[in-house]
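Worked example 2:
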Amino acid sequence: MRLLLANPNTTQAVTGTIAAAARAVAAPGTEIVPATARFGARVIGTRTEMAIAEHASLDLLARESDGCDAVVIGASIDSGLRAAREMLAVPVLGLTESALHVACLTGGRFGTITLSRRSAYPLREMVEAYGLMGRCGGMRAVDANPLDLLAAPEKIAAMIVEQAGDLLARDMVDVIVLIGAVMAAMPARVQPHVPVPVIEGVSCAVALAESLVRLRLPKAQAGGYAGLPKRDLIGVDPALAARFGA
C-alpha cells in the first residue's frame, strides 16, 4: 500500500516531521510517499495563504498521486480536501477531520489546542462545517508558530500541557486534539503529563487511510463527489488541467 503524504506548506522541515510521524504508525507494508507543494506559504497561517494552499494542494495531488492507494493532506486546514475527493478515485483524508473523528470515537467531548489564536478562528469554522461542534468542549491556543515549535519543542510542549490542564479543569473534555501538521511529534512529549488521550492528525489520518483502502469502496459515479467533467482550464499546471475529463 502506498500513501501519498502531501504537504501544502512549502517548508521541507514540516514535510520531514509529518513523514516521520506517518511512518511511525503505518502498518508493515505501507509505504509513505512524502511530497511538498511547489508554491505557496512557507507555513500556512492566514486566510489568504489558506486560499492559495487550496490550489497548491490540488496542484501537488494532480502531479504526485498516480500509483498511490490513498492520500493524506498534511496541513491543519485540510487544504483542498473536498475538491481532492472529487478529483481523485482513491481515499483522501485531512489531518484535522481525521483527528476530530478519532476523538469522537475515543471519548465524549474533545478539546482542541492550536499554535496561534489567529488559526483558532478558521478551526472553529472547520469544526462547525464537519458537524462536530456539539462534541467540542473547548478550544485553546498557545500563541506560538510552527517555527517556534520546531526550534524549541520542549518549551511549546510545556505550554500545551498547561492549556490541556485548563481544558480538563474548565471544560471537562475527555480527549485533547492537537491541531497542526507540526504537532505530529507532540503527543509523545505531552501525554505523560496529561491524564486523558492526546491525539494529532497525522497518525489518525494514516490509520484511517489504511482502513479505507482495505474497504475497497468504489469512486462515486454520481452526487457531489463524482469524477470531474471535461473542462478547459487556462494557466494551471498541465497535470491538473488533465484531471478534467481524464
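The two ends are 24 Å apart (CA to CA). The chain has ten helices and eight strands.
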